[in-house]
Design brief:
- This protein has about 240 residues and is an alpha/beta fold.
- Helices cover about 40% and strands about 20% of the residues.
- It has helices at about 20-35, 45-55, 70-80, 95-105, 115-130, 170-180, 185-195, 200-215, and strands spanning about 15, 35-40, 60, 85-90, 110, 140-145, 150, 155-160, 160-165, 185, 225-230, 230-235.
- Strands 2-1-3-4-5 form a 5-stranded parallel beta sheet, sandwiched between helices.
- A hairpin with a 4-residue loop joins strand 7 and strand 8.
- Helix 1 packs across helix 5 (about 115-130) and helix 6 (about 170-180) packs across helix 8.
- It is globular and about 55 Å long.
Amino acid sequence: MDASVDPQYQQKTVMALDDNVHTLRLVQHALDQAGYKVMTAASGEEALSLIDKLGLPHLAIVDFHMPPGMSGFEFCHTVHQYSDLPVIMLTAVSDESTIIEGLEKYAEDYVVKPFSPGELIARVQRVLRRIGDFAYTLAPQTRVDQRLMIDFPKRMAIVNGESVSLTPTETKLLYILMRSAGKTVTTDFILRRLWPLEPAYEDRLHVHMHRLRRKIEDSALPPYIISQRGAGYVFQHQMASQ
């Protein structure tokens, strides 16, 4: 393990998604050396299957072109239906319009092949530092406490053992809040992450927040989500019993 790696970024899970076996091995080796847990997939379909089975990673490094299956953009579009998974695009495509589309719609950063493994790791750390660590153990079903679990890929909450369907927006909203559990997430940040390419207003967010809280909270118990007037929202961090 590289002794220069910031300890707070060790033991995070990063998914590497690329149809080129050589590139996939190179990325996996760089991530292994930096102390990350690594999930690898050679197609978008395989990556989605792994997420269903193992849970979401903390970050994904995604190739753009992966014929004959779904493209990297299509993978990102699918996974962003139920999460705010940070993505770094890694591709040989250097067309400016493609880069702009990737950064505007899906990715936190964009790396063009051929690449330096050291630079890639530095970019991974920078994105994780900016986005923040997910406060709960990411798994196929993420446990909040004995009462509540969330299945992000299936867009479902399990409340007292009962399945409750969530809309894509509710699921992504919950992901954003749970990622920073115990900390204030500003309203502006939430709006930008939920609706990055369209005008969005607080009233729209309030509707989705109200519906989400009705689904996962019990009025007789302390709330999971606290509204901070003029600031944003806090997901009250619960310690799940092992």
